[in-house]
Design brief:
8 helices; Rossmann fold; two-stranded antiparallel ribbon
Length: about 220
């Protein structure tokens, strides 16, 4: 049966990488509400007119409006065999709306959590560095450059660190995720549709377990 995969993970868990691999290898489109919002506001449509002031002011998009965007996107032909949701649902109210959509579309629903201990999440976020020339990403703990703070591909260029990649911000981002996502985890766990995957390993090992969860193995 075709599936809607609700992919979840804290900042730094590697959820985006797993979504990309699922998309490439299972030919399932990755549906990101953030990406859709940004694309829509660049258009001249009634929906863009509703979204633009909310995003400009940094306000939350109401559940009903978010659902309209998701419904419109997932009605496209590439979603007939299922799709991956990234960033939706964010609340149990949205999860309830998604149940209705899944039933309408004839899809089963499965939630997958890429689970990573806080100490590793912190190192993944605070250890990130990137080359301002080629964009290559390093991590001083897990994927350091050959020379300290210097790009392997551009040895004359010093790596840079994002201003928000610090311990305090990392703690706040993970705490926000835990607070906001816990009700969703409980929601899917109660119905037996939550799969937890150990995200503290290498990318391919994580993907192997995500793929097993998705295929029902």
């Amino acid at each position: 049966m075709s599936k809607i995969i609700v992919l979840m993970g804290a900042p730094g868990a590697g959820k985006g990488t797993q979504a990309r691999l699922l998309q490439e290898r299972l030919s399932l489109p990755q549906i990101s509400t953030g990406d859709m919002f940004r694309a829509i506001v660049k258009t001249e449509t009634p929906l863009a007119e509703e979204l633009r002031p909310l995003l400009t002011l940094g306000r939350l998009v109401p559940d009903e409006l978010t659902m309209r965007v998701v419904r419109e996107r997932t009605a496209q032909p590439d979603c007939r065999a299922g799709y991956i949701l990234d960033g939706f649902p964010r609340t149990t109210a949205q999860a309830g709306m998604l149940e209705g959509l899944a039933a309408e579309q004839g899809h089963a629903l499965l939630a997958v959590l890429v689970d990573v201990p806080y100490d590793i999440l912190e190192k993944r976020m605070t250890g990130r560095r990137n080359c301002p020339v080629c964009g290559e990403i390093y991590n001083v703990y897990f994927k350091p450059p050959a020379r300290d703070e210097v790009c392997d591909l551009h040895p004359e260029v010093r790596l840079v660190r994002r201003a928000d990649d610090n311990a305090e911000t990392a703690k706040d981002r993970v705490a926000t995720f835990e607070r906001d996502t816990r009700p969703l985890l409980e929601y899917y766990e109660k119905s037996g549709r939550l799969r937890r995957v150990d995200g503290a390993r290498d990318v391919e090992a994580i993907y192997a377990d995500v793929q097993k969860a998705v295929s029902g193995e």
